[in-house]
Design a protein that fits this description.
Alpha-D-Glucose-1,6-Bisphosphate, Chain A, domain 4; alpha+beta; elongated; about 30% strand; about 140 residues
Length: about 140
């Protein structure tokens, strides 16, 4: 059985408002899925089917992520996981960015497909957060 959620955190050397700007830019959520995206401030569907689920400015932003291997990936909630970003101010003008992707246990995929996808996503989130932190810190230094 696969766990239901992936959780990752990273501390970014940038203030929360700058991290929020970078996170919720015009490419959200598409940039997080390696697809073209739409404005994350609306409920518009991004290329690849990602849909903004909710936002609680300035600290929380979430979207539903479809899984292409799931036969019901286009249905609302069916075949999707929920990805939630939470920003927390840290000392020294830093931000802790936490990502939680949940809903894996509800996906009705063959066990081996589900297990492989879960493991791949865990590695992908570690990689994506590291790249995001580097990019955001560089943008802050330019200002």
């Amino acid at each position: 059985m696969v766990a239901d959620r992936i959780e990752r955190e990273i501390t970014i050397a940038a203030p929360p408002e700058r991290v929020r700007e970078a996170l919720a830019g015009a490419e959200f959520p598409g940039a997080w899925l390696d697809t073209e995206g739409t404005d994350g401030s609306t409920d518009a569907v991004a290329a690849g089917g990602a849909e903004t689920a909710h936002a609680e400015p300035p600290a929380v932003l979430a979207f539903r992520r479809p899984h292409r291997q799931h036969p019901q990936a286009s249905d609302a909630g069916g075949g999707t996981t929920l990805v939630t970003f939470t920003l927390t101010a840290e000392p020294g003008n830093h931000t802790r960015l936490r990502v939680v992707e949940s809903g894996f246990a509800a996906l009705t995929l063959p066990p081996e497909t589900l297990r492989a996808g879960f493991e791949r996503q865990g590695h992908d989130w570690t990689h994506r957060l590291t790249l995001f932190a580097v990019r955001t810190e560089r943008l802050v230094l330019r200002r």
